[in-house]
Design goal:
Strand order of the largest sheet: 2-3-1-4-5-6-7
CATH architecture: 3-Layer(aba) Sandwich
Number of strands: 7
CATH topology: Pyruvate-ferredoxin Oxidoreductase, domain 3
Number of helices: 7
Radius of gyration: 15 Å
Strand content: 15-25%
Oligomer: single chain
Length: 191
């Protein structure tokens, strides 16, 4: 990772946008990287659109603001594809990862995207339901993101998940999250 990587997360309150953005940033620290992970929201309720941001770099990060020109956009709720311009500011050749059962080609058509953005899809909601019995797609999305971006090692995310979730959740919840990350890592599809 020669340059700073900026990732913008789009989702709805309750889907784990904040957790995913900060989890990725905290995991990067264990690889010796510099990072930032933070949400952007006000008094929104569950279900309201929210954004999260993650910056990862080999060098110190001196910028402290929202991300306007991300290399990667992660969309946890596919309804946001039509209600918000999630691709706004995406760099040329950037990547868009969407939680949807649709194919990347179908998402490109739905978004009316021109240019050379790369589209990836994963049915993270179904994976979350299968592995966690809850409709919270954030950890599967982290697994898919690691696969398409290679910003961190999968092992780093696994160890961070065990350490962080192991303090708060029962072992079966931790194992379910690990399975969800692995499935998404292996099942993500790109154009």
């Amino acid at each position: 990772m020669a340059q700073m990587v900026e990732i913008r997360w789009h989702g709805r309150g309750g889907q784990g946008v904040k957790t995913a953005a900060t989890m990725l940033a905290e995991a990067a620290l264990t690889e010796g990287k510099h990072s930032q992970g933070f949400p952007e929201y006000g008094p929104e309720r569950m279900g309201a659109p929210v954004r999260g941001y993650t910056r990862l770099s080999e060098e110190a990060i001196v910028v402290h603001c929202a991300i306007y020109n991300p290399q990667v956009v992660v969309v946890l709720d596919p309804t946001l594809l039509v209600s918000e311009n999630v691709a706004e500011g995406l760099i040329d050749g950037g990547k868009i990862l969407v939680n949807t059962p649709s194919t990347p080609a179908e998402v490109r058509k739905q978004m009316k995207l021109n240019g050379n953005a790369k589209i990836y899809t994963i049915n993270a909601t179904q994976i979350a339901l299968d592995e966690l019995k809850r409709e919270i797609p954030n950890t599967p999305m982290v697994g898919a993101l690691i696969r398409i971006s290679e910003v961190l090692k999968l092992e780093t995310i696994e160890e961070d998940l065990k350490r962080k979730f192991g303090k708060k959740f029962r072992p079966e919840v931790v194992e379910g999250n690990l399975r969800a990350v692995h499935r998404a890592y292996n099942e993500v599809k790109g154009e």
